């Protein structure tokens, strides 16, 4: 590891420790940034509007807990009046071994993934998951009871309207998610919304997973999906809306 990369990781790890401490002690919230310009929703987050959005400080969750991710990974979260966005850059030193999802809601770990876990009511009990693979396939899942019992608490039938696009090249793959606020249930207080959020990447070839925030290893592999392990975030200037007829019609087609 070169010196510049090592210093960068130390800084990101410090930020991760600080945010995690504040999260569990209830002191601070991670304030999401609003996009400052237009983006082209094409799978690659390379517009100037993305440049001011800092990537989340990911750490490796498995197989070596707490170390720097082996593969360069940048996950950015932002929003505008209508959507929550995720932009992901997933470098891979062995791009020929990337595996893709073929069917919607094809939830398995023989596929490369990147995704968001959201506790939209910040109740520390329930989460919804939005995940995609390099094919741009969509998987959405709901967990209840803080994912205490996967056989009982995972709802694969949960679906809502959202978009994703992805691209691949000889350095890895890229993805952009666009989740309408009208597809999420949450409470706002004068336009301020507090939710829980986690992000993760999974590399099927090496069985590596990277997470934000620092999830307690005692919860095991599925701890990433626990509402109690999400980072509290603050979104300003949005309101809860009922799903539109357009969204429902598009989803059913």
Task: Summarize the helices and strands and which ones pair or pack.
Elements: H1 3-25, E1 30-31, E2 33-34, H2 48-51, E3 59-62, E4 73-79, E5 83-91, E6 113-119, E7 127-132, E8 138-143, H3 150-153, E9 154-155, E10 163-169, E11 172-180, E12 192-203, E13 208-212, E14 231-236, H4 245-252
Parallel strand pairs: 1-14, 2-4
Antiparallel strand pairs: 3-13, 4-5, 5-11, 6-7, 6-12, 7-8, 8-9, 10-11, 12-13, 12-14
How would you describe this protein?
- The chain is of the alpha+beta class.
- It is 15% helix and 33% strand.
- It has helices spanning 3-25, 48-51, 150-153, 245-252, and strands spanning 30-31, 33-34, 59-62, 73-79, 83-91, 113-119, 127-132, 138-143, 154-155, 163-169, 172-180, 192-203, 208-212, 231-236.
- Strands 1, 3, 6, 7, 8, 9, 12, 13 and 14 form a nine-stranded mixed beta sheet that branches. It has a five-stranded mixed beta sheet with strand order 2-4-5-11-10, with no helix packed on it.
- It starts with a helix and ends with a helix.
- Residues 10-27 and 244-253 have low confidence and may be disordered.
Say how many strands there are: 14
Q: Tell me, rounded to a whole number, the average pLDDT.
A: 87
Amount of helix: 10-25%
Rg result: 17 Å
CATH architecture: Sandwich
User: What is the H/E order?
Assistant: HEEHEEEEEEHEEEEEEH
CATH C-level name: Mainly Beta
Main sheet record: 9 strands, mixed
Low-confidence spans: 10-27, 244-253
How many independent structural domains? 1
Q: Describe the global form.
A: globular
Strand-residue proportion: 25-35%
Q: Examine the coordinates and then state which fold CATH places here, giving the name of the CATH topology.
A: Immunoglobulin-like
Put simply, the count of helices is 4
């Amino acid at each position: 590891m070169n010196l510049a990369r090592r210093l960068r990781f130390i800084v990101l790890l410090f930020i991760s420790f600080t945010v995690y401490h504040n999260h569990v002690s209830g002191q601070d919230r991670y304030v999401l940034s609003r996009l400052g310009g237009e983006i082209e929703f094409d799978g690659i987050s390379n517009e100037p509007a993305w440049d001011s959005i800092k990537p989340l400080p990911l750490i490796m969750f498995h197989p070596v807990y707490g170390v720097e991710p082996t593969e360069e990974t940048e996950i950015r979260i932002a929003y505008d009046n209508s959507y929550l966005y995720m932009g992901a850059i997933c470098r891979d030193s062995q791009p020929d071994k990337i595996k893709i999802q073929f069917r919607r809601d094809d939830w398995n770990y023989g596929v490369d993934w990147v995704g968001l876990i959201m506790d939209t009511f910040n109740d520390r009990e329930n989460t919804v998951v939005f995940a995609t693979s390099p094919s741009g396939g969509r998987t959405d899942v709901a967990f209840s009871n803080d994912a205490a019992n996967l056989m009982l608490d995972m709802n694969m039938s949960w679906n809502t309207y959202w978009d994703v696009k992805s691209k691949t090249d000889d350095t890895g793959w890229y993805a952009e998610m666009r989740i309408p606020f009208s597809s999420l249930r949450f409470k706002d207080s004068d336009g301020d919304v507090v939710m829980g959020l986690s992000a993760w990447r999974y590399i099927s070839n090496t069985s590596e997973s990277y997470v934000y925030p620092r999830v307690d290893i005692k919860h095991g592999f599925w701890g990433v999906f626990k509402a109690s392990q999400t980072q509290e975030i603050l979104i300003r200037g949005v309101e809860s809306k009922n799903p539109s007829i357009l969204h429902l019609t598009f989803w059913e087609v």
